[in-house]
Structure formats: structure tokens, C-alpha cells
Amino acid sequence: MARIFMKGCEAIAEAAVRAGCRFFAGYPITPQNEIPEYFARRMPEVGGVFIQGESEVASVNMVYGAASAGTRSMTSSSSPGVALKSEGISYCAAARIPMVYANISRGGPGVGSIHPAQMDYFQATKASGNGGFEMLVFAPSSVQEAVDMTYSAFDYADRDMNPVLILADGVIGTMMEPVNLPEAKSDEEVAAIKESKKSWACIGHKLDYANRAWIQPGNWSTMVMQNENIKAAELYKSWEKDAQVEEYLVEDAEVVIASYGISARIAKSAVEELRKEGIKAGLIRPITVHPFPYKAFDNINYNTCKAVLDVEMSIPAQFVHDVAIGVKERCPIETCLCSGGNIMSREAIIEAVKKINEK
């Protein structure tokens, strides 16, 4: 298929439509506004439903309801809006309802700024809502990756009966790049997906409080809830096989940069510039930030590596905590950070690597 020039938010929405998403509910917030705007136009063209809820809370619970009926469903927001949706996302996790959502993140804490940031890492990977549930979390570094991850996210959600998060940022969401869009699922394929969910979907089954995943979780007994959490823990453990990572020039690197999303894309260009100057830099880029690819850090040659440099658009650093688990105190960890809507610069990364190299 020919490449198409698209903005990140619009490309995410189109990928979802092509994956068979037929229900979207959302609420305006910068910098993700183009996602609901695109869905508002696109959904009627494919027989889907778009709703702008009266709030983030209303929107995510509409998605909870639509997904419970077996329809591939999605929502999106930015940072404080995702915080408002966290209870509904937790409900979907408790009830084992497959849904997909995107966070086109901005600065914080609180309302913060409307500019790009990576300050929702803990929220995305450690505490997306109450109750300790976990999700697959994908972190694109390009618009093409955002398309591919969104398209596949619906399959992962259905496979695991669990929410899936696309953790992007304001740069990925608002930049324009050429992309190859996946083939759209036909009406027959979309119908077949919904048909395959009839055994559990909320479509008029006789109530069975012990086994119906879609029953409002507050009605469960303590032992049923415990057993469901045991099953969920087994699911989360199985995700080690799904961890994805890019390792770039790590084998002989004297400084390894660890980064994700747009910061990693900038860091990769810094690695290339540093190599031209004879400085042996490398990059580890988690593509899934949950599960985190800790094993990738075992591939560093700690006999020659002077330090691992954590690069992220967050102050205080958050991503660095998982980096530290991967490094296991085998070498020092330095940081290169920015925040408040400032975008990481290649020059700052190069300077940070050179300082390490001079020590």
C-alpha cells in the first residue's frame, strides 16, 4: 500500500478503525484532540459509533460498556485526563474486558503543561489504577510504530481479556510522518470477531456470579476476587515472552543510552553522531515498557562500559528505576533529563555522553 502522510494522533485513530474498532468515546484535551476529532468523522463511515462524553469518567465507562458487549472499543486522553479514566480502566481490568486506550502524554504533575513530556511512566507501568492490575504498554518512537502498535493492540487485548495501553507523547501525537497503513478488516471479519466473544459478552446471558467476567466486580465474594487475581498474576507473568526491545550498537559500547519513545529516537541520532567522532555509544530502547525488557541489559559488556545514561523527558526521573533493575549495579547510571514541555535535544545527549567519556 502507498505511504500516506499523517499526523500521529490521526494515524493512531485510523489504525484502530482498520483493526476493527467500532466504538470510541472520549473527551477533548491537548495534545490528543485529533484522535476523537478523527473518530468523529471516521466512525460513521464504517458503521461505528463515536461519542464525546460529558467527561473523561463518562467516556471510559461507555467504553467499558461497549467492550463488555463484545465490540472492539477504544478511548484516548492526555495525562490528567488518563488519571480521571483510571477507575474505569481498573474496572475493565477487574472484569477482564478487552479494551485499548492511548495516552498522548503532556507535562505534569497536575494540569501541568500542554506540551510533550514523558512524566506518566509510573502511571503507565506501575499504577494505572487501583488494585495493582497490569497491562501491556507499548511505547512508539515514530508515527509508523504508533500505527503498528495500535493495530496489534486490539489482538493482544482480545487474547488476554485485558486493557492495552499505547503510551505516546505530544511529539509523536502531533508530528506528521509518512506511514504504511495496515489492511482494514472487512465487515465480515469485524462481525466474526464480535461473534467469537459471545460466550462471555454481556448480551443477555443468565447471570452467573461465579464465572461471568463481565459482572460488576464489586459483587464478587472475597475468594472469587482472590482467585481472579491469581489468574491475573499468572497472565502477567506470561508476558515475559512479549517484551520487545531495540538494541543498537550495544556490543562494544563504552556508554549505553537507555531511553524510550521520542527520547530514544533522538538518542539514536546522538549515537550515530558520537560514533562518527569515534566515541563508542550504544542504545537500548524498550519498545514495550511493560513488560520491561530487563534481559537486554545483560548484553552490555560491563568490562568496557563506563556507564549507562538514562535519557527521558521527566524530572524527577522515572524510567531510570527500571533501568537500574536491569543494570543490577554492574556499572554507574547517569541521567540526562528535561521536563515541563521541553523536548530532549540531541546536543544535550551528546554532551552528557562526552562528560561520561572524559571521566
From TrEMBL:
One of its GO terms (molecular function) is 2-oxoglutarate synthase activity. Residues 14-199 form the Pyruvate flavodoxin/ferredoxin oxidoreductase pyrimidine binding domain. Its EC number is 1.2.7.11, 1.2.7.3. Keywords: Oxidoreductase. The keyword Oxidoreductase applies. Residues 253-347 form the Pyruvate:ferredoxin oxidoreductase core domain. Gene3D superfamilies: 3.40.50.920, 3.40.50.970. NCBIfam families: PRK07119.1. This is 2-oxoglutarate ferredoxin oxidoreductase subunit alpha.
